[in-house]
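Project standup — Tuesday

K.O.: blocked on the structure for the chain from last sprint. Re-posting the sequence here as requested.
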Amino acid sequence: MPQKTLGALTPGSYAPGWPGIPPRLTSSAKTGVGTAHNPASPLWFTFSHGILNELYYPGVDQAATRDMEFIITNGKDFMSEEKRSAKSTANCITEGVPAFRIINTCAQGFYRIEKEITIDPQRPVLLQRSRFKSLKASQGDLHLYVLLAAHLSNQGFGNTAWVEDYKGVPMLFAQRDGNALALACSVDWLKRSVGFVGFSDGWQDLSAHKKMTWEYERAENGNVAMMAEIDLAKTKGEFVIAVGFASNPQEAANRARLSLQEGFDTALKKYSAAWVNWQKSLLDLDKTRERDKKNVYRASTIVMRSHEAVNAPGATIASLAVPWGFSKGDEDLGGYHLVWPRDLVETAGGLLAAGAHENARRVLAFLESTQEKDGHWAQNMWLNGTPYWSGIQMDETALPILLVDLAWRQKALGDQDRQRFWPMVRQAAIYLLKNGPISPQDRWEEDGGYTPFTIGAEITALLVAAEMADLNKQAPMAVYLREVADDWYSAIDRWLYVTDTDWSKKYNVKGYYIRIATMDTAVDVVPQEKVLVKNVTCDKAVQLAEHLVSPDALALVRFGLRAPDDPRILDTIKMIDTLLKIDMPQGPIWHRYNGDGYGEHADGLPFDGTGIGRAWPLLTGERAHYELAAGKKEEANKLLKALENFANEGGMIPEQTWDAADIPERELYFGRPSGSAMPLVWAHAEYVKLLRSLRDGRVFDMPPQTVQRYLVEKKTSPFVLWRFTYRRTSIPYGKCLRIETMAPAVVHWSYDNWTTRQDFKTKDTGLGIFVADLLTQKVPEGSEIKFTFYWPETDHWEGADFSMRVGVPNGT
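H.V.: unblocked you, prediction finished:
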C-alpha cells in the first residue's frame, strides 16, 4: 500500500461539531516563562496551574497554542484534570535557567506527575519529560492522556487538526496560515483523535465515557484540540513529549522527531549552558538575598530576556500573557504580546541595571529601526514595527532619548555609538518640540492632557537632546531645546499644582499635584476643569481634575525636577497615601489613581471595558525609589521586600494585585495576583533597577541634567511661550513673549489697544518651528498684549486677535 501523505483523509474520519465553541485563551497568571533565545529556535513557552499554557511561534508576538495538559481516568468512573484536580509545585531545574520541574499531585491522592520542561535550542521544539506514578492503584488501572489545544497565528478559529504518521512515527498535527505544529511522543501513542472544542474534542469524550472512545482523524478550519493516550505499560510511566513547529507540517514533524532522537538531556544541557553563561555575565545583585527565599532577581532577569524576540533582536513584548485571557477570544489579537516603547525602555533600563549591556544595545537598535518618519513611536507594535493601536503617548517619544543617555552613562554605548543614535534622538526631540507638552494619552494609555510623568519625561528628554546637539555642533538647536525645556519646567505648577481646594482643606495640606489637567485647561489658572475618566461606568466618567491624585507625581522627583523634600511633594505624598495606599500582609502597595477602572469588577468578573482598578506592585518599586532619593534607605529596603512578596511562587511579579476580600472560586485572594497579566516585564525591570539603586546608594536612572540645571543651578525661563496648541492667557511682568508657529509668519502686535503696533517676522529654527520674540519685558503690569498673524506663504491674515494680560497672579 502506498504511504499516505500528511493531511490525507479516509472517508468518514471527519470530527463532528464544526467549528467548535468560541475560542478562549487561558489564565494570565503565569508561574514561569522561557525561551532558548537562539535564532534557530524561535519558540517561547508559558505555564501555570502545573501545565503548559501558550506556546509562541514563530515570534514572541504570536500565540500558537492555548494549553497542553494531562487527563487521567480509570476507564470507568474517575476523571482528573491535572490543572484542576492537582496541587502543583514548580521550580527551576537550575537557578537562573528557565527550564522547570513541575510536580502535580492529585488532590485525591491517586497519582503524581513530575514534569521537566525545556526547549531544544537547535530547533523550535518544546520538550516535556514526564514521570507518571499511580499512588493508590496499580499503574495499569489508570489511563493517561495528553490534550493540546491549537491556537496558531494568534487565532483559535481557523485551525485544522489531523492524525497522521510521519515516516512511520505516529503524530498529531495542526496548521493555520503558514504555521504548523506536530505533537509526538518518545513511545507510540495507544490512541489518537482530533476534534472541535466543546463538541468532539477529547475532553468531551473522557468526560462522557471516562475512556477514549472517539478516534477522529481530521477537524477542519475551526477551534480544534488534539488528544492521544500514553502507553503507560510500555513507558513504565516515563516518556518525553515533543511539540515541534515549522511553516509546514512535514518540517514540524521532522523537528519533533529529531529532538526526540537526540534526547531530552542533550537539549536541556545545551539550553541550560547558554542561560548559565548569560546569568554569569550579569551583576551579582542577589548576593545579599535570604537563601531560603525565592530569587526574584534571577526570575526577573529570566523574564526580561525571555520576552525578547530572537528574530527581531531588541524587540521585547510587555508580557507573555493576555490579561484575563480566559475571557478573551480571537478579537483580542494583541493581548500584551506587543512591543510598547515605554515598557521596552523600562525593560532596557532594567537590563542596564543588571549589567546586560548588549541586550540594551539591541533595544536601542530596534527603537532606531521602528521610529516613525515624524520622530515618534507607535503606541504599541508588532515585531516588524507595524502599529497595533493608534494612540499617541508623548512619554513613549521622550523615553528612548533618555535610554540613549542612560546607556552612554553606563558605558553600554561608546561615543561612536552615541553618535549613531543622534539622528534618532534629533527626530524624536523635534516631535516633542512640535507636539508637546500636552499628550493625547497619559502613560496609562487613558486620558489626554498635562500629566506629571509625561511632562517630566519630555523636559528631561529635551535637555538630553540639547547635550547631544552640542556634541554634534548644532549649538542653535541646543539653545532652543533648553529654552523650551526651561519654559515647560517653569509651567509645571501652573498646569498641575492646586491649592485652596475642598480636598486641600479636608486633608490639611497647602496644595498637591493632580493626576492630570485636561488639554483644554487654561494654562495660567489652577485647573478646576472636569476630566473624562476612561474604563468606568458613565455615572463615574466625569471627575473634577482637582479630585484626581496619582503616584505619577513622584516622577517629578525621579526625573530630577523636584527635590524629594519639596513641601509640594510632601503634601502630595500625604494625599497619595491617604487615597491610594493599601497595607497588605506582603507590604504597602498603591493604586494608579483614585477612580481607576482598569481591573476586575467587585464580584471578581474580568475587566470588560469597565471595572475597578486594583493595586500595582510596580508602584511599590517606584515609591521605594522616591524613599531612596529622600535618603530613607531603610524604608526603601522594606519596600523592596514588599515587592518581592508580591511575586508568586515562580518569582513572577503581576501587573495588579487583588485588593479586596477573597473570592476563591475566581482564584482571587487578598494580596495575591489579580487576573490581569503576570509577569509584567516592566514590573520586573523596576525591581531590578531598585536592587541596583540600593546597591549604589542612589537612584539608578535619575538624569543628572535636570538635577544640575533645576535643583542646583535653579534655572528659570526668561520666556513665556505661546503657540496655537498652547495658548496662554497671561504673562508675568518682565518676561519676553515668544510666539511659535509651524510656518513662516509676521506677528502684528500691540500692548495699548492698537494705538501703536509692531511687526516681527518669525525666524526659522531649522526644526520646522518658527519663532518671534516680542519685546514685552517692559510692558506695564495690567496691560493687555494683543497680536495677530500674517501668513506670507499663503498671503492672508489670520482674521482673529489673541491677547495676554501682563502680571496676572499665578503667572510665574
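K.O.: great, moving the ticket to review. The longest strand covers residues 111-120. DSSP finds 21 helices and 33 strands in the chain.
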